[in-house]
Amino acid sequence: MGKFLNEFKEFAVKGNAVDMAVGVIIGGAFGKIVTSVVNDIIMPPIGWLIGGVKFTDLKFTLPKVDVVGQELESVTINYGNFLQTIFDFIIIAFCVFMLVKALNNLSKRIKKEKEANPEPPAPPQPSAEEKLLTEIRDLLKDKK
Questions:
Q1: Least confident piece of the model among 39-53, 67-81, 124-138
Q2: How far is CA 15 from the centre of its chain?
Q3: What is the C-alpha separation between 110 and 67, in angstroms, rounded?
Q4: Would you list the DSSP string of 44-108?
Q5: Which of 51, 59, 107, 130 could form an SS bridge with 126, CB 3.0 to 4.6 Å?
Q6: Within 13 A of 7's CA, how many CA atoms are on the CB side?
Q7: Which positions ≥6 away from 64 have C-beta within 8 Å?
Q8: How many CA atoms are closer than 13 Å to the CA of 12, on its beta-carbon side?
Q9: pLDDT-based confidence at 26, cuts 50/70/90?
Protein backbone atom coordinates (compact mmCIF):
# COMPACT_ATOMS: atom_id res chain seq x y z
CA MET A 1 0.00 0.00 0.00
CA GLY A 2 2.88 2.38 0.79
CA LYS A 3 4.45 1.80 -2.62
CA PHE A 4 1.12 2.62 -4.29
CA LEU A 5 0.82 5.88 -2.32
CA ASN A 6 4.41 6.84 -3.18
CA GLU A 7 3.75 6.21 -6.89
CA PHE A 8 0.58 8.29 -6.71
CA LYS A 9 2.45 11.08 -4.91
CA GLU A 10 5.16 11.09 -7.60
CA PHE A 11 2.50 11.26 -10.31
CA ALA A 12 0.49 14.00 -8.60
CA VAL A 13 3.43 16.32 -8.02
CA LYS A 14 5.02 15.82 -11.44
CA GLY A 15 5.04 18.97 -13.50
CA ASN A 16 2.92 17.45 -16.27
CA ALA A 17 0.07 16.41 -13.96
CA VAL A 18 0.03 19.76 -12.16
CA ASP A 19 0.22 21.66 -15.46
CA MET A 20 -2.66 19.60 -16.82
CA ALA A 21 -4.77 20.27 -13.72
CA VAL A 22 -4.12 24.01 -13.99
CA GLY A 23 -5.01 23.87 -17.70
CA VAL A 24 -8.29 22.10 -16.99
CA ILE A 25 -9.26 24.62 -14.31
CA ILE A 26 -8.35 27.62 -16.46
CA GLY A 27 -10.05 26.00 -19.46
CA GLY A 28 -13.27 25.59 -17.47
CA ALA A 29 -13.20 29.22 -16.41
CA PHE A 30 -12.36 30.30 -19.96
CA GLY A 31 -15.32 28.27 -21.26
CA LYS A 32 -17.66 30.08 -18.86
CA ILE A 33 -16.35 33.45 -20.02
CA VAL A 34 -16.80 32.58 -23.69
CA THR A 35 -20.28 31.19 -23.03
CA SER A 36 -21.20 34.45 -21.31
CA VAL A 37 -19.80 36.47 -24.23
CA VAL A 38 -21.83 34.40 -26.67
CA ASN A 39 -25.06 34.38 -24.63
CA ASP A 40 -24.96 37.94 -23.30
CA ILE A 41 -23.15 39.95 -25.98
CA ILE A 42 -23.17 38.21 -29.36
CA MET A 43 -26.50 36.35 -29.51
CA PRO A 44 -28.87 39.17 -28.40
CA PRO A 45 -28.01 41.41 -31.39
CA ILE A 46 -28.21 38.43 -33.76
CA GLY A 47 -31.62 37.53 -32.31
CA TRP A 48 -32.71 41.15 -32.64
CA LEU A 49 -31.57 41.24 -36.29
CA ILE A 50 -33.62 38.15 -37.13
CA GLY A 51 -36.77 39.42 -35.46
CA GLY A 52 -36.27 39.02 -31.72
CA VAL A 53 -35.77 35.27 -31.83
CA LYS A 54 -33.79 33.66 -29.01
CA PHE A 55 -31.89 30.65 -30.27
CA THR A 56 -32.43 28.78 -27.01
CA ASP A 57 -36.22 29.09 -27.50
CA LEU A 58 -36.15 27.40 -30.91
CA LYS A 59 -37.63 23.91 -30.71
CA PHE A 60 -39.73 21.46 -32.60
CA THR A 61 -42.64 19.95 -30.67
CA LEU A 62 -43.64 16.40 -31.51
CA PRO A 63 -47.37 15.71 -31.31
CA LYS A 64 -49.00 13.72 -28.53
CA VAL A 65 -49.21 10.04 -29.34
CA ASP A 66 -51.87 7.50 -28.34
CA VAL A 67 -50.22 4.14 -27.69
CA VAL A 68 -52.48 1.25 -26.66
CA GLY A 69 -55.05 3.53 -25.07
CA GLN A 70 -52.45 5.57 -23.22
CA GLU A 71 -51.68 9.08 -24.38
CA LEU A 72 -47.94 9.95 -24.29
CA GLU A 73 -47.01 13.56 -23.61
CA SER A 74 -45.54 15.56 -26.44
CA VAL A 75 -41.80 16.06 -26.43
CA THR A 76 -39.64 18.78 -27.89
CA ILE A 77 -36.49 18.67 -29.95
CA ASN A 78 -34.53 21.68 -28.72
CA TYR A 79 -32.50 22.45 -31.80
CA GLY A 80 -32.02 26.05 -30.63
CA ASN A 81 -29.91 24.86 -27.68
CA PHE A 82 -27.95 22.71 -30.11
CA LEU A 83 -27.31 25.71 -32.39
CA GLN A 84 -26.27 27.78 -29.36
CA THR A 85 -23.82 25.07 -28.27
CA ILE A 86 -22.35 24.86 -31.78
CA PHE A 87 -21.90 28.64 -31.81
CA ASP A 88 -20.18 28.46 -28.39
CA PHE A 89 -17.88 25.73 -29.66
CA ILE A 90 -16.91 27.67 -32.78
CA ILE A 91 -16.03 30.75 -30.75
CA ILE A 92 -14.08 28.74 -28.13
CA ALA A 93 -12.23 26.84 -30.86
CA PHE A 94 -11.35 30.12 -32.59
CA CYS A 95 -10.09 31.64 -29.33
CA VAL A 96 -7.97 28.56 -28.56
CA PHE A 97 -6.62 28.63 -32.13
CA MET A 98 -5.62 32.28 -31.75
CA LEU A 99 -4.01 31.59 -28.36
CA VAL A 100 -2.00 28.63 -29.72
CA LYS A 101 -1.01 30.66 -32.77
CA ALA A 102 0.21 33.52 -30.56
CA LEU A 103 2.19 31.11 -28.34
CA ASN A 104 3.77 29.46 -31.41
CA ASN A 105 4.78 32.87 -32.80
CA LEU A 106 6.27 33.84 -29.44
CA SER A 107 8.15 30.54 -29.28
CA LYS A 108 9.53 31.08 -32.80
CA ARG A 109 10.59 34.63 -31.93
CA ILE A 110 12.41 33.46 -28.80
CA LYS A 111 14.11 30.69 -30.77
CA LYS A 112 15.28 33.18 -33.44
CA GLU A 113 16.65 35.52 -30.76
CA LYS A 114 18.59 32.66 -29.19
CA GLU A 115 19.99 31.69 -32.58
CA ALA A 116 20.94 35.31 -33.35
CA ASN A 117 22.56 35.86 -29.93
CA PRO A 118 24.11 32.57 -28.88
CA GLU A 119 25.66 32.34 -25.45
CA PRO A 120 29.45 32.65 -25.47
CA PRO A 121 31.23 29.32 -25.11
CA ALA A 122 32.53 28.41 -21.70
CA PRO A 123 36.23 29.12 -21.19
CA PRO A 124 38.38 26.07 -21.85
CA GLN A 125 39.31 23.96 -18.84
CA PRO A 126 42.99 23.82 -17.88
CA SER A 127 44.85 20.75 -19.07
CA ALA A 128 46.10 18.06 -16.67
CA GLU A 129 49.61 19.52 -16.86
CA GLU A 130 48.38 22.98 -15.96
CA LYS A 131 46.44 21.59 -13.00
CA LEU A 132 49.54 19.72 -11.77
CA LEU A 133 51.72 22.81 -12.13
CA THR A 134 49.14 24.87 -10.22
CA GLU A 135 49.17 22.34 -7.37
CA ILE A 136 52.99 22.40 -7.27
CA ARG A 137 52.97 26.21 -7.18
CA ASP A 138 50.43 26.25 -4.35
CA LEU A 139 52.51 23.72 -2.36
CA LEU A 140 55.66 25.81 -2.82
CA LYS A 141 53.78 28.92 -1.60
CA ASP A 142 52.63 27.05 1.50
CA LYS A 143 56.24 26.06 2.38
CA LYS A 144 57.40 29.68 2.45
A1: 39-53
A2: 15
A3: 69
A4: HHHHHHTTS--GGG--EEPPPEEETTEEEPP-EE-HHHHHHHHHHHHHHHHHHHHHHHHHHHHHH
A5: 130
A6: 4
A7: 71, 72, 73, 74
A8: 6
A9: confident
Residue 89 to residue 85: CA distance in whole angstroms: 6
What single-letter amino acid sits at 20?
A: M
Average pLDDT over residues 69-83: 86
Cβ-based neighbours of 95, under 8 Å, separated by 6 or more = 30, 34
Question: Contact 77/60 with Cβ under 8 angstroms?
Answer: yes
**Distance between CA atoms of residues 17 and 62, nearest Å:** 47
Do residues 88 and 35 lie in contact, with contact meaning Cβ atoms separated by under 8 Å? yes
Q: Rounded to an integer, what is the distance from CA 66 to the centroid of its chain?
A: 50
